[in-house]
UniProtKB/TrEMBL annotation:
Residues 195-222, 270-307 are annotated as: Disordered. This is Fatty acid hydroxylase domain-containing protein. Its main location: membrane. GO terms for cellular component: membrane. The lineage of its organism: Eukaryota, Sar, Stramenopiles, Ochrophyta, Bolidophyceae. Signal peptide: none annotated. The keyword Kinase does not apply. Residues 209-222 have a biased composition (Acidic residues). GO terms for molecular function: iron ion binding; oxidoreductase activity. It comes from the Eukaryota. The chain crosses the membrane at residues 21-44.
Amino acid sequence: MIQLIDPLSSYAVREDGADDWAIFFLMMLPSISFWVFAGGLHLIGANKSYRGKVKVRDMIMTQLFIDCIQFLASVPRLFIEEHSRHFTCDWRKLILGVMVIDVVEYVCHRAMHTVSFLKPIHKRHHNLMPVHTLGAYYNSTFEAAFVGIILGVTAVGIFQLTILEISIVASFGASMTVIDHTPKRFWSSKWRQIKQPRSNPNCPKEECGTDDDSDNFNDEEKDEMFGFSDHEIHHNVCPGSNYSQPFSPLLDYVFGTRFIDVMNKTGQDPKEVLRRARDRRDRQEKQKPAMQASMENDELWDSKKVS
């Protein structure tokens, strides 16, 4: 009767355990999810306007290192926990896992921006300006260890998520983190192509447009189509805001760390600040070499003011 009422509350794929290869696949699933999403978006042009100083090769090497560390950190569970428990999955634990990741990421992320001795370990990630899908986890070793240990202790040590539950939640988180590091202009351009395909001969340029025709639109339209996502604002405009990721901005609302809240506290016009940042980004892409752009970005990170 209980199974009929709540069939997903405690589902086990195989009570007698699973094949070792299946377990290894689960342990690698978050990494696979990252490469599918990040690589796929990269191949269809999400990063084509990238002019940052971090090379794609370095992003890939960092991600491979993170993948190895993540996999090796899961290996001890194969020997410590009961084999039959690896493949159990409780949907309530999945919801809990999402909440844990959001809370831990917010607390750690905010700490790495506000606690003086933690700031250096996060600066490497902020070299990624503008954002790039393959650089979603372009972090220092110390940052990966810092956040990873706290996540592991919380999700596995305290809340006892199984390997299957961790794999599902972490894969979802990896996908959302890649989306966070995808330029908003890419999504806007794809949406415009869906609404008014360029192949339509009856579609005038001012309606269909191209990826770099921002001069054809007024300021409000530019803000919507060529502006920044929440996480792009954190990278490109105001590092002291928008700490939440990867699932929900809820904690930024709760603790008053949304970009607009920070602007209100400092008496600045958020629209004007975003427009200046957008113009600076466009200027860097069209006129300045990557190294000069990176110098300006370093000044933004080191400064406590909003550029």
